[in-house]
Amino acid sequence: MKTNKLSQKFYTSATLNVSKALLGKYLVRRIGKKKFIGKIVETEAYIGTKDKASHTFGGKITERNKVEYLEGGRIYIYLCYGIHWQLNITTEKAGKPECVLIRALEPISFVKDERVASGPGKLCKWLKLNKSFYGEDLIKSKRIWLEQGERIKKSQIVAAQRIGIDYAGWWAKKPWRFFIKDNPFVSKI
Questions:
Q1: Stretch 138-156: mean pLDDT, rounded?
Q2: Res 1: pLDDT
Q3: Which residues neighbour 182 within 8 Å (Cβ) at sequence distance 6 or greater?
Q4: Domain 8-180 belongs to what architecture?
Q5: Which residue, of 46, 53, 106, 113, is most buried by count of CB atoms within 10 Å of its CB?
């Protein structure tokens, strides 16, 4: 079956550009014979070793964050507050640890509750994502990947400060959260 998977080149571009370009793309998750599809409507960029909100701040390398140092197009997933999984996609070239948090999806398939993916923890629960996806290659994977989806006009992209990272001081105020204007599936603050 032919898909419109995103290429490696897409993921290895500048993180802020990838974070905006992800809006409107389709995240596809195969579970058995079913495909769960969600349109990405909200993202948040983390810009590596200089970004105080990044898990790689100061050049830190741990078992938790080492996948961020690989070439873009990998899944960086971790447990937040010991409760919710958080789905991130690595960006840039190998050795430059940057990523984009997928904050919210607009469900396209298999939806009972339309706001089932309107937050980073909720979307991981809906798509049944967990630690087993750590390091997954979005180019080669048969269980999760991204497709072209819908084109979002620049005028429809809103930039705002990131959420839930007050510990990062003025880095938290960087306008590195992007979402589709007036989309009802964006996470509630």
A1: 97
A2: 43
A3: none
A4: Roll (3.10)
A5: 46
